[in-house]
Amino acid sequence: MTDAKPFVEIRQARKCYGDLEVLKNISLKVNKGQIIAIIGPSGSGKSTLLRAINDLDPLTDGEVWLEDTQVNKKLPHKQYENHINKVRQNIGMVFQHFNLFPHLSVRENITLAPKMLKGISDAEADRLAEEQLEHVGLSDRIDYYPSQLSGGQKQRVAIARALAMQPKVMLFDEATSALDPELVEEVNLVMKRLAEEHMTMIIVTHEMAFAESVADRILFMDGGVVVEEGPPEQLFRAPKHERTKEFLAKHLRANALAPA
Amino acid sequence: MGLDLTVVPPFAGLILQGALWTIAITASAGVLSFFGGIGFAICALYAPAIIRYPIKAFAWLFMTTPLLLQLFLIYFGLVQIGIDIPAFFAGMIGLGLHFAVYNSDIIQTGILAIDKGQHEAGRTLGLSRGQTLRKIVIPQAVRDVVPPIGNNMIALLKDSALVSVIGVVELVHASQLAISETFRPFEFYLAAAACYYVVNLLLEFTLHRIERRIALTR
């Protein structure tokens, strides 16, 4: 694993909003099939880092690579647009607030991008939608509108929509944070299934138990830096840094208060 | 003389024809104002400055001058520089552009109110900015502003009476023709008012149906 060529690589990422430096020289290598979970307090920069991977929040300095392609290449506007639209087809993203298209049915949500970008036929698109919905266990909702779905179902459709582009890597930005507690599990199950299928995933999450059960490696971020990283058993059971210990202790306390 | 509605039926054909022209000009100007409004809105928000500012100046012109004057300019004015537009089309263009400017303001607000996450979801799938606007943002924005656009359509229907002054024989003009033969203004203006009322009911009914249909897609 150590000598494998990184699949996703971030090199010396810096991000500033005016005088505020939200990412301070972060580097990260992710191998094919690896699952990385990024944890940390809000404002630590974890979402910004994730959103830099598909250049949704462009870095101030540093590089992002997906295989042999630099994602945040400096190009003239028109060329950059062409370049990034192609690159993004390979990077699926799932948002905290789902961002389903409310004016389109579940089927259309899933098939819109593949139809427009890959020129597949209506019949192929239908098959694709059916396939992806089966994958997330929502075959019977294909002709529903997002407003008719629960939060958990919406997020599963959002995952199916991202997967329909057959991305090489999936980014999850607090995918379960906006869900009612009883709906979290169904989304986690879908993500676990993806993990078993060796999808490369980078997950920003507040759910320590889930991160521990699914990730190969945990990054703990605070104040724009990666404070500590390692395999879950090490980071959760034997954290080295004071800041990590504090953060985990706070989370443990919060969870202890929550009813089982 | 009193009120004697029996003078109306002999002119029913004329009034009905007037009503049909009112519907025709309202429908065609309505379509023009709707798509023109979308076009203006997109230009005002996203076109490069060289297109954006002339469009904004043009829109401002249409907003700050009376519709009646605009109709005169298009029908009587343009002829002088060799642009001779038949009355119906002059009326359609005047009404259509005038209301396109108002619709554009509404649609711009609608576009800007669409959640940033919708843009982001489109872009992360690999859609271009234009594709995201066309397929995701603008359909939702237009859907959201159906009620105020509908109000503009009702205003357009009523203001279509103004094209009577450039010679289109719509409801008001038709009733005036009947009056000039019968000298019964009260009866024929009442008849015209009744026609506007009925056409407006039909329009409201249609708008209501559209609003019900899109309720699911919010």
Radius of gyration of chain B: 21 Å
Which structural class is indicated by helix and strand composition of chain A? alpha/beta
Largest interface: A-B, 29 and 23 residues
The number of distinct helices of chain A, counting runs of at least 4 residues, comes to 9
Named CATH topology of chain B? MetI-like fold
Mean model confidence by pLDDT of chain A: 93
Output the strand order for the largest sheet of chain A: 6-7-8-3-9-10
Task: Characterize the overall form of chain B.
Answer: flat
Q: What is the first-to-last residue Cα distance of chain B? A: 57 Å
Name given to the CATH homologous superfamily of chain B: MetI-like
Question: In percent, how much strand structure appears in the residues of chain B?
Answer: under 5%
CATH class of chain B: Mainly Alpha
The name of the CATH architecture of chain B is Orthogonal Bundle
Question: How would you portray this structure in words?
Answer:
The complex is a heterodimer of chains A (260) and B (218). With 260 residues, chain A is an alpha/beta fold. Chain A contains nine helices and ten strands. Chain A has helices spanning 46-53, 77-88, 106-118, 122-135, 151-163, 181-196, 208-214, 232-237, 242-257, and strands spanning 8-17, 20-30, 35-39, 61-66, 69-70, 91-94, 169-173, 200-204, 217-222, 225-230. The longest helix of chain A is centred in the last third of the chain and has 16 residues, at 181-196. Chain A is globular and about 55 Å long. The N and C termini of chain A lie far apart (37 Å). Chain B has a single domain, classed as Orthogonal Bundle (MetI-like fold). Chain B contains nine helices and no strands. The longest helix of chain B has 35 residues, at 12-46. Chain B is flat, with a radius of gyration of 21 Å. The mean pLDDT of chain B is 95.
In short:
With 260 residues, chain A is of the alpha/beta class.
Walk me through the topology:
The complex is a heterodimer of chains A (260) and B (218).
Chain A: E1 8-17, E2 20-30, E3 35-39, H1 46-53, E4 61-66, E5 69-70, H2 77-88, E6 91-94, H3 106-118, H4 122-135, H5 151-163, E7 169-173, H6 181-196, E8 200-204, H7 208-214, E9 217-222, E10 225-230, H8 232-237, H9 242-257
Helix pairs in contact in A: 3-4, 3-5, 4-5, 5-6
Chain B: H1 12-46, H2 49-64, H3 67-77, H4 87-113, H5 116-124, H6 129-144, H7 146-159, H8 171-182, H9 185-214
